[in-house]
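To close the chapter, one final illustration. This time we ask the reader to focus less on the individual chains and more on the assembly as a whole: which components sit near each other, and how the overall shape emerges from the parts.
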Amino acid sequence: MMNFLSDPILALLWFGAVGLSVALYILLDGADLGLGILSLFPRKESERALMMHTMGPIWDANETWLVIAGGMLFGAFPTAYGIILSALYIPVMTMLFGLILRAASFEFHAFSVKKRFWSFLFGFGSLLAGVGQGLAVGGLLSGITIVNGEFAGSAFDFFTPLTVLLTIGVLMSYVFVGYAYLIKKTGAETSPGTYLRILITGAVTGVALLGATLLLPTRSYLFFTRWTEYPSNYLLYCITALMGALSLWLILLVFKRHTGPALHNLCLGIFICAMLGMLVGVFPYLIPPSMTIFEAASSRQTLLFMLVGLGPLFPIVLAYNFYLHKVFSRDEGEHKSRAQIYGE
Amino acid sequence: MDVLTVSRIQFGSTAAFHILWPLMSIGLSLFMVVMEAMWLKTKDIKYFHQLKFWTKIFILTFAIGTASGIPLEFEFGTNWAKFSSAAGDFFGNILGFESTVAFALEAAFLGIFVFGWEKVSARVHFFANLMIFVGATLSAFWIMAANSWMQVPIGVTVENGKLIVTDYLVAIFNPDTMVSFLHMWVACIESTLFMMMGICALVLLSRKASHEVKDFFIQTFKYCLIIAIVVTPLQIGLGDLSGTTIAKYQPAKLAATELHWETNAPGTGADWALVAWPNATNDGNSFEIKIPKVLSVLTTHSLTGRVPGLNEFHPDDRPSLINDIIVFYSFRIMVAIGFILFLLMILGCWYWKKGLLTIERTAHDRLFWWLFVLGTPLGFIATEAGWMVREIGRQPWVVYHLLRTKNGLSSGLDANTVIATTGIFAIIYLAFSILFVYFVWKIVAKGPDFNARPPVV
Ligand code: HDD
Ligand code: HEM
Ligand code: HEM
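The assembled structure is written out below.
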């Protein structure tokens, strides 16, 4: 059946699907996490509540992309799934604790009278989740020791200078996109100084990621060759140039105190560039520099079965998520929580 | 403690916590579908109020269910990396199905269901409600298919230490899947019903609640009772089916649930132990009370059916002493609750038939209502007990007869890290449970909002 799909092509297709889910997760939930972190700061409860409620209807669906990405990675690349997660035990658990706290305090916030406490816990959970994700990316790029197809390092291997820089970068970029999303949703600056803070977070993100890029070659020769060898170097130059251009445009808009959706869209553009850069940097490795996509893939049978079963569903899932975002993009002003709608 | 033990405790306890919430989400979403359908059909506002009220509790259970489910998915990789690698060809794939099809469906339609009242038509809204229920049921199906395959792993061959699928349909629809999915699914509905009836009973016993509020809860009680008429006997039948299935495919587990040591000789029946305690060498009972031939009847439905005893299996291939004890008593707790809930249902119907299910009578029949209050946690206890039978009875295998639990553990795990994270999970989860009870208490104390009017789109 389906002979035209060779094994490598199948593996690539699934890598694409996992990659797309991860990308969607970051693009959609990044802003939610950023807003959550931001909600730690305002003194007025009304301001915090506004931040939380702008993501009310959708953050749950956004987070599902993480579950989908995890499920697909498990199905299509089970060995890599096991190695990556067991090597990154501490970062992954950190992220999970964050996600748990965030999910539950979001609803508790709505039902409770102690709003301050729950919005704090919500923000703290978002922060923890962001930290966990940063540590995980850092740990993955710092390299995982594999012997005989098993993780052979120790629990704290993930913690390197590269990891620290990447964690800062991830957190700041989430805050950054969170601000942009807030401006898009509310059509205004929510508090004086927002634009200044956008600039600062943006600058810190830039510096941290630049530092990380410089550190990468010290972790593995692979990353060095990506910047020096044809064709990956040209691709990387192009992506960097594009990112630079988008960033300049964004800075310009910030100085003009733009209030439309363009800020958020530009942020997403920069995120996409950064992820494409990552892709060029690591391809075809799933665990750089030791395990490739092709070595990690499930059996042909399984990849085909998943393709036939999930392939047609993927566009449907995309479509109804799109519908969801469309239904809720129309709401202006009335930002309520689930519980409020039910009369709490 | 060694890494293996703490890892098992971590997985087992986080799973045991997770299961509480989908249980209620599935049960409540069924109730919500019925209420919205009745409302659309009759336009009677009382159904709308029922729907609105119970949705509040559903929102809480769903949030905690999602929050506690995500760690489980990742724990397969963090704690059981070698299991993931060896069994991932089938197992990971099925989880991939679950997350894409089922979770995505639920999460997206929940947004429309909760926030969409004024944005979508009544039909779309009902459809969203239905899809939440379908999505939840599908996720239960997929996860049970994955777990059943760990119990009866067929449709695969072993290649280089990996279990490679040869026939998907055989693996998905292994002989255990439908039986355990149905038993689980009915457990969700049954447990939720008795939880709801318990809440209703509490309100009806209260001296403060208004007549209007009591009327609301007595209605809920009756709807639940109607569904329980079908569900409680069905569950006992499905439990019997589960028992005969494990007798056939996991004889060592069955022998452990019954602490049955010696295979009965041909022509005689196996005795059934009502209570028993294994001896220290784990090869017989130091104490037991037995009823002749009943075990043969229960498992094979014949007086002289052969039931292999535990001593027929090598000690390394069957549950350990402590596991035997847990499995034996968990099983008895579950079965006892199955019958208690059935009797509660009969009692409820009898009162109803005699016309005693009225607000006026609640002042007199306090014992009756207190019995239902006591029934509130029983379904959950039975469910946890059932899972202990299933998962601990499967030991020492993670994939029955193909992969030992100790060979499924991640390498490079640090016992202290696992203990620390388990502790954090325990604290957070304990807090969630207490808060859940507190918030449900508050929601119930506040009562339904009788002024709520359905939105006009
Ligand atoms: C409301 C909950 C509830 C009730 C009243 C019962 N069960 Fe149950 N039982 C479950 C909830 C449950 C469960 C939690 O849902 C389990 C665990 C895994 C599964 O598929 O169902 C289970 C598992 C389970 C197993 C183990 C299956 C395996 O290891 O593969 C057996 C043999 C039974 N049940 C038998 C019974 C019998 C004979 C009952 C009758 C009185 C009964 N159950 C009532
Ligand atoms: C939600 C209800 C569940 C509960 C309460 C539960 C309970 C447990 C317990 C107590 C253990 C530890 C057993 C021991 O080591 O003695 C365990 C292990 C395990 N369970 Fe479950 N389980 C549940 C559902 C599932 C499902 C649906 C799956 C698979 C899809 C699953 C997969 C596993 C695995 C992989 C292990 C670890 C290996 C092992 O100890 O055998 N569990 N579970
Ligand atoms: C131990 C194995 C299990 C794993 C790995 C697991 C995984 C998950 C995950 C990741 C979620 C969150 C999905 C989301 O983002 O919406 C979830 C929720 C859910 N799970 Fe589980 N689950 C397990 C056991 C079970 C069992 C045995 C059932 C059967 C009833 C079940 C039914 C559900 C349902 C219905 C939800 C939706 C959320 C809710 O209703 O509370 N799960 N699970």
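Chain B touches chain A through 76 residues (CB under 8 Å). The mean pLDDT of chain B is 88. With these observations in hand, you are ready for the problems at the end of the chapter.
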